[in-house]
UniProtKB/TrEMBL annotation:
<dbReference type="Pfam" id="PF00202">
    <property type="entry name" value="Aminotran_3"/>
</dbReference>
<dbReference type="InterPro" id="IPR015424">
    <property type="entry name" value="PyrdxlP-dep_Trfase"/>
</dbReference>
<keyword id="KW-0808">Transferase</keyword>
<keyword id="KW-0032">Aminotransferase</keyword>
<dbReference type="GO" id="GO:0030170">
    <property type="term" value="F:pyridoxal phosphate binding"/>
</dbReference>
<dbReference type="GO" id="GO:0004015">
    <property type="term" value="F:adenosylmethionine-8-amino-7-oxononanoate transaminase activity"/>
</dbReference>
<protein>
    <recommendedName>
        <fullName>Adenosylmethionine-8-amino-7-oxononanoate transaminase</fullName>
    </recommendedName>
</protein>
<keyword id="KW-0663">Pyridoxal phosphate</keyword>
<dbReference type="InterPro" id="IPR015422">
    <property type="entry name" value="PyrdxlP-dep_Trfase_small"/>
</dbReference>
<dbReference type="GO" id="GO:0009102">
    <property type="term" value="P:biotin biosynthetic process"/>
</dbReference>
<comment type="similarity">
    <text>Belongs to the class-III pyridoxal-phosphate-dependent aminotransferase family.</text>
</comment>
<dbReference type="InterPro" id="IPR015421">
    <property type="entry name" value="PyrdxlP-dep_Trfase_major"/>
</dbReference>
<dbReference type="InterPro" id="IPR005814">
    <property type="entry name" value="Aminotrans_3"/>
</dbReference>
Length: 438
């Protein structure tokens, strides 16, 4: 079904899309399997972006599809307000195991945006529960992306995502971003320069007083703003400063979680543990919308010490949806049974070397990667920021390749089940695209 072009396309207002241009020349996907999509014209397209960063195990995993179908026939919906269902509790235990039992509890949401807003609300409510209700300020970072809820865009630092929507949340400030093209271009893994940028938190602490700051939220690796990798020691320094001033540290691992850096979470790779961690995307291999906030036990326990009754007045109709739980449980099975993380670690050096082969091609001004994620920064066309990146997206699709762009940066995050032939195809086609760009 749905194998042909729709008769009309005007009714669907598409997200984060140049709607008018798209509908003049649509890019329609109708099926997916393994590392590939198929479009409405029957062409195969290598998935260089894991959909929207969210399909680590590859497309069409039978175990996940079967689990969703079985749950749909058994329990299509169940509330988790004052009720529950077994899969939600089983999944929570499995997620604690997947995280190495470094967290104590998980709160379900329906998306990454909801997970971020949930983490921010938990941070604020935690301080109030322990008698520090004056800690209401939230600190994000320039060029950070934390979804599209009002909390997420307030702590986020991408101008285009903020400017249309009014003053946003009060009491929010931002750290400086870590991207230093002049000193760190073509770095492999963590850049050498910039650990001192973490000390920008001291500037904000001095400005606002630490007793007013509830939490700092950062992406361990900023994905949607162009794969910005933190300098060596940066995240550890940020952790130390938060501990010094009693500030909670939140990692937004919506993109980096579930294997993108070859470890379960980015915190594992960097050796830094946040207090709260927002996740989504790969938790269900993209098959059913779901998000989850991982919480340290001391945060959860602070809510359990007050009067009996509802401890946290927060949640969503679809928190712990049965189909999402079934998909997530099956996804964790696939990670284990198919050695997805082990394959990603095995492929990482080959992926990095293939990326570096693009150095010297037209318009390329930086290449950066960590784990199985890469950013290719292109020189912008004078007076037309983003135009070259958009042209790359369209040319890649025409050449049988799906990529992500953010401005003039190409972001790559293929499924973690990739093999050498997929890496060769990905970068071979991308090299051709780059040589064709104006």
């Amino acid at each position: 079904m749905y194998e042909s072009r729709p008769a009309a396309m005007s009714s669907f207002w598409m997200p984060f899309t140049n709607n008018r241009d798209f509908k003049r020349d649509p890019r329609l996907l109708v099926s997916a399997k393994g590392m590939y999509y198929r479009d409405v014209d029957g062409r195969e397209l290598l998935d260089g972006a894991a959909g929207l960063w969210c399909v680590p195990c590859g497309h069409g995993q039978p175990k996940i599809a079967e689990a969703i179908a079985a749950m749909a026939g058994q329990l299509d919906y169940a509330p988790t307000f004052q009720m529950g269902h077994p899969a939600a509790f089983e999944l929570a235990e499995r997620l604690m195991e997947f995280s190495g039992h470094r967290f104590g509890h998980v709160f379900y949401t329906g998306s990454g945006s909801e997970a971020v807003d949930t983490a921010l609300k938990i941070a604020l409510a935690y301080h109030r529960a322990r008698g520090e209700g004056g800690r209401t300020r939230l600190i994000g970072r320039e060029r950070g992306y934390h979804g599209v809820g009002f909390g997420g865009i307030s702590v986020g630092g991408i101008g285009a995502n903020r400017k249309h929507f009014g003053p946003l949340l009060p009491g929010v400030d931002h750290l400086r971003h870590t991207h230093d093209l002049e000193r760190n271009a073509y770095a492999r893994g963590e850049p050498e320069h910039g650990v001192e940028l973490a000390d920008d938190l001291e500037r904000l602490v001095t400005l606002h007083d630490p007793s007013t700051i509830a939490a700092v939220i950062v992406e361990p690796v900023s994905g949607s703003t162009g794969v910005l990798i933190p300098p060596k020691g940066y995240l550890k320094r940020l952790r130390e400063l938060c501990d010094r001033h009693g500030i909670l540290l939140i990692f937004d691992e919506v993109i980096t979680g579930f294997g993108r850096l070859t470890t379960p979470f980015a915190g594992d790779w960097f050796g830094v543990e946040p207090d709260l961690m927002a996740t989504a995307k790969g938790i269900t291999n993209g098959a059913v919308p779901m998000g989850a906030v991982f919480s340290k036990s001391f945060i959860h326990d602070a809510f359990m010490e007050g009067p009996a009754g509802i401890e946290l007045f927060h949640g969503y109709t679809y928190s712990g949806h049965p189909l999402a739980c079934a998909a997530a449980l099956a996804t964790l099975d696939v990670f284990r049974e198919q050695g997805v993380l082990e394959n990603a670690a095995r492929m990482q050096p080959y992926f990095e070397e293939a990326l570096q082969s693009l150095r010297g091609l037209p318009h390329v001004i930086d290449l950066r990667s960590i784990g199985i994620i890469a950013g290719i920064e292109l020189a912008p066309i004078a007076g037309q920021p983003g135009a070259r990146g958009y042209a790359a997206l369209k040319q890649a699709f025409a050449d049988g390749l799906l990529i992500r762009i953010t401005g003039d940066i190409i972001a790559l995050s293929p499924p973690l089940v990739l093999e050498k032939q997929h890496v060769d195809e990905l970068f071979g086609k991308l090299a051709k695209v780059l040589t064709q760009l104006a």
